[in-house]
Amino acid sequence: MNTVSIIVLIVLAILTIVQVMRISEISSSIQGGKDNQVSEKDNDTQGKLLLLVGMGFVISVLVMYWAWGYHSLPAPSSEHGAEIDSLWNLSMLIINVVFFIVQPILFYFGYKYRGKKGTKAVYYEHNNKLELFWTMVPALALAVLIIWGLNVWSGLMMPENEEEPIVIELYAQQFNWTARYSGGDNQLGYATVHEIGGANIVGVDMEDIYSSDDIVTKSLHLPVGKPIKFEFRSQDVIHSAYFPHFRAQMNCVPGSKTYFQFTPTVTTAEIRQNKDVKNHVEEVNGIRAAKGEDLWEFDYVLLCNKICGAAHYNMQMEIIVETEEEYNAWLKEQKTVAETL
Ligand SMILES: [Cu+2]
Fold first, then answer.
1. How far apart are CA 165 and CA 333, in angstroms?
2. Which residues pair with 320 in a beta bridge?
3. I need a surface site. Which of 33, 307, 309, 322 has the fewest CB within 10 A?
4. Which pTM does this prediction carry?
5. In which region does residue 168 sit, left (phi positive, over 0), alpha (psi from -120 to 50) or beta (all else)?
């Protein structure tokens, strides 16, 4: 369906709703407004429906946890990942405990105190103890989460390095990623959008002394157990580099550089042996085989986590985590920008 017919359809739907409302108003005024009066039976039905919908809602959440809960990510593959997971688990624990206490009570009370003839609402003005309780409890919970979260964050952004991290740039554009390795000097040459042209896809300034040994690639290889410092740039709009398996994410903003550092701890070969990953791959391949499609092999992936345009969903790059020897051998095979530009 093209855009014009969708717009026409929406306009027609709105006009229909307006006409139906007018008809109902006119018929109500003809009957002397009796149509809008809420009867005892209406209140009773609405109260029961509220209870039904509320309980259905709470039960459906339980069913979804049970049916799809195993689809969450496997154990983290980075040094800091366990800490992010602990933060996440505590947040989810608090949210779930509150949810499963408050929601059933809320809907049950809505049902219990549904409108009945002769019943009058209690006029309850103020209670200091109650006010204090429901202010202090959320404030304490939030304080724990925020203080702990800020501590974790500052540890991630200002890591105490025992060894110098490997510097890799990730360049974002609609709709792909390019990696630039800093080469033997571990320093990225200056790059700017004004230098982009021909094979120079990330705009490396060849005049800069750090540029010549930089390596531009379309796949991201990382050595296991080594700290990696990523520097992010974007060519067009705001993107977000998202490494779900490493519990890392950072916005890529046009005109400025952002950073994130982490140490991968599990190689691609090892994560493929992870029980959860194996089950997931088996399930996906069962569906693919039934459709006659090629089988899939698990790979770490870098995704874009900002809705940056029409093909945003497909903005991804494979990440290969390997041993230091494998990584060095791969890096040796790559051409420097001095050789390619
Ligand atoms: Cu994007």
1. 21
2. 221
3. 33
4. 0.81
5. beta
CA 272–ligand 1 middle distance (angstroms): 27
Task: Return the closest-CA partner of residue 302 out of 225, 244, 237, 215.
Answer: 244
Q: How confident is the model at residue 94 (pLDDT cuts 50, 70, 90)?
A: very high
CA of 274 to the centre of ligand 1 (A): 29
Q: What is the Cα–Cα distance from 137 to 129, expressed in whole angstroms?
A: 12
Q: Answer for the pair 273, 298: CB distance below 8 angstroms, yes or no.
A: no
CATH architecture for the domain at 166-340: Sandwich (2.60)
Question: E strands within the chain?
Answer: 166-173, 176-181, 215-217, 220-223, 228-234, 239-243, 248-252, 258-262, 300-304, 316-322
Ligand 1 center–CA 47 separation, angstroms: 47
Distance separating alpha carbons of residues 94 and 97, to the nearest angstrom = 5
- Residue position matching structure tokens 């369906």: 1
pLDDT at 34: 66
- The first and second tokens of residue 154, run together, are 């500052």
pLDDT in tens, 211-264: 888 999 999 999 999 999 999 999 999 999 999 999 999 999 999 999 999 999
304 CA distance to ligand 1 middle (Å): 5
Taking a C-beta distance cutoff of 8 angstroms, is the pair 176, 165 a contact?
no
Residue in this structure with the two tokens 């049916």, named with its chain if needed: 67
CA of 308 to the centre of ligand 1 (A): 4
Structure tokens at 273: 């042996």
Say how far apart CA 275 and CA 10 lie, in whole Å.
48
Q: How far away, in angstroms, is 23 Cα from ligand 1 center?
A: 49
Cα of 29 to ligand 1 centre, how many Å?
A: 55
Cα of 101 vs centre of ligand 1, distance in Å, is 39
What pLDDT, on the 0 to 100 scale, is given for residue 3?
A: 86
pLDDT tens readout for residues 28-72:
788 776 666 788 899 999 999 999 999 999 999 999 999 998 888
**Lookup result for tokens 């309980």:** 55
What's the 240 CA to ligand 1 centre distance in angstroms?
A: 6
From residue 176, alpha-carbon distances to 70, 235, 303, 309 in Å are 30, 11, 9, 12
As a whole number of Å, the CA-based R_g of the chain is 29
Burial tier of 175 (Cβ tally within 10 Å: 0-12, 13-18, 19+): middle
